[in-house]
Amino acid sequence: MSFQSFNPPRRILMGPGPSDISPQVLSSLSRPIVGHLDPLFIGMMDEVKALLQYAFQTKNEFTIALSAPGSAGMEACFVNLVEPGDKVIVCRNGVFGDRMVQNVIRVDAEPIIVDTTWGRAVEIDKVEQALIDNPDAKFVAFVHAETATGAVSDAKTLCALAHKHDCLSIVDAVTSLGGIELRVDEWGIDAIYSGSQKCLSCVPGLSPLSFSEKAVSVIKNRKTLVQSWFLDQSLVMSYWSGEGKRSYHHTAPVNSLYALHESLLHLHNEGLENSWDRHKAQHEDLARGLEKLGIKFIVPKEERLPQLNAIYIPDGVDDVKVRNYLLNHYNLEIGAGLGDFAGKAWRIGLMGYAARSENVALCLTALEDALNQ
Ligand SMILES: *Cc1c(COP(=O)(O)O)cnc(C)c1O
């Protein structure tokens, strides 16, 4: 058997992530490696932290990039904050809300599940009722941007509700960060995690994470040890925040962090609000084009995510054939349906660097061609 270097074609990624990566971010990966405790690298990590604080709109001292994908960010929130026996209200309106439930179960805590129909925003009234029925609940957990369905939930109201009932909020912002309005401090988010490969348009494998002071004090006052050594954030805190005492915890993914720094720099240079506006404008163009093709959205207009467009596959159209056609003829990837929507929906991502006019135009042309074939 003979092996060769792997040289993939240049695809255009318009699925649920990973998203397109700009040439500048990609090339930052090939800069010379330095030691992860090199003073120059530590200086860059200080900037990563400051840029993440900007992206999250937070002053949280504990704001880091976890060396693992978004799923690990989710797990880090649950294993660090939640102790066995705690009651956690979990809002479930798609695949990722259900993963939160699985996390709660695995830390031996008690999930109080608030179900909302897939494709809709989390129902505030139901969450309030769950809080009234469970005065001993300690956390409210929800997904801001449900990538499985393309629905956005009202994070600001949900966090206010959690605080009114003395609960901390745990928020999944994997798909929302950089793509839609998100204000960690103003909205009172206590624990939040994201992913590098969605609207930040960086390589997969890093999870931005931020904890409020209240969340940090919950972690510091735990009665039990965090089950996971690697995800125990009390062990990592000194690396990220101790003045000059960067001690070894694990080897940081050095070059991936160059790419995160570069992508956060682009977001900062563009301006967060400009990025939100760009995602919205590109989404509106795409939606107009899709409607012309007779394609219907799953989510009602006011609850739609601009960066994740979930649409019904037209009757009689072969899901896999169309997606393969786009890949083979246009080097274009769109996402398949997930969970309840498998085989019934496509998910067109307009995330980060992918949210550009030429991509919208290409996607509409390619889709029209594929449907005509
Ligand atoms: C992609 C995604 C995750 C998981 O992130 P990975 O990097 O794939 O582990 C979690 N939550 C949401 C909402 C996502 O879209």
Automatic annotation (TrEMBL):
One of its GO terms (molecular function) is L-serine-pyruvate transaminase activity. Gene3D superfamilies: Aspartate Aminotransferase, domain 1, Type I PLP-dependent aspartate aminotransferase-like (Major domain). It is an enzyme of class 2 (transferase). GO terms for biological process: glycine biosynthetic process, by transamination of glyoxylate. Residues 40-337 form the Aminotransferase class V domain. The modification N6-(pyridoxal phosphate)lysine is found at K198. InterPro entries: Aminotrans_V_dom, Aminotrans_V_PyrdxlP_BS, PyrdxlP-dep_Trfase, PyrdxlP-dep_Trfase_major, PyrdxlP-dep_Trfase_small, SP_NH2Trfase/AEP_transaminase. Its cofactor is pyridoxal 5'-phosphate. Keywords: Aminotransferase, Pyridoxal phosphate, Pyruvate, Transferase. Substrate binds at R347. Its EC number is 2.6.1.44, 2.6.1.45, 2.6.1.51. It comes from the Bacteria. Pfam families: Aminotran_5. PANTHER family: ALANINE--GLYOXYLATE AMINOTRANSFERASE (PTHR21152:SF40), AMINOTRANSFERASE CLASS V (PTHR21152). Belongs to the class-V pyridoxal-phosphate-dependent aminotransferase family. This is Alanine-glyoxylate transaminase/serine-glyoxylate transaminase/serine-pyruvate transaminase. It comes from Thalassotalea piscium.
